[in-house]
Design brief:
This protein has a single domain, classed as Nuclear Transport Factor 2, Chain: A, CATH 3.10.450.50. The protein is an alpha+beta fold. Strand 5 and strand 6 form a beta hairpin.
């Protein structure tokens, strides 16, 4: 049975997913805590590349649309248990060189006070076509 808090957190994840698809950075950041952390899908570290704090996370989120101007996250499925949430979706986007990426992905969230505190992104390593 889903609790009232879990229902509100699922709505938060749906709002967050919709904001990505609308390329709406202000709504994305409204979903994040002041001390937010984002672990990107790629980078030199064990967790990809980590961005800490609102300014760094905002810039990292915005770069997704710079790298993939037509980026979309579709077929979203969201669930929450306690202070953890998961969103599954299909990422689609075209790079500047014309190659397309289409792969399933998962975001694992840590939630705090009705917002996203940590976003940890994982995406299948499928070659561009």
């Amino acid at each position: 049975m889903t609790t009232q808090n879990e229902s509100a957190d699922i709505q938060l994840l749906e709002t967050f997913n919709d904001a990505w698809n609308h390329h709406d950075i202000d709504t994305l950041m409204a979903c994040m805590t002041d001390t937010c952390v984002f672990h990107a899908v790629a980078g030199p570290d064990m967790l990809g590349r980590t961005f800490e704090g609102r300014d760094a996370v905002r810039a990292a989120f915005a770069s997704a649309w710079e790298n993939f101007p037509d980026a979309s996250w579709t077929e979203g499925v969201h669930f929450v248990t306690g202070n953890r949430g998961v969103s599954e979706s299909t990422f689609r986007g075209t790079k500047a060189d014309g190659s397309r990426v289409e792969a399933r992905m998962v975001d694992v969230f840590t939630l705090r006070d009705g917002k996203i505190d940590v976003k940890n992104a994982f995406r299948k390593d499928r070659p561009a076509f």
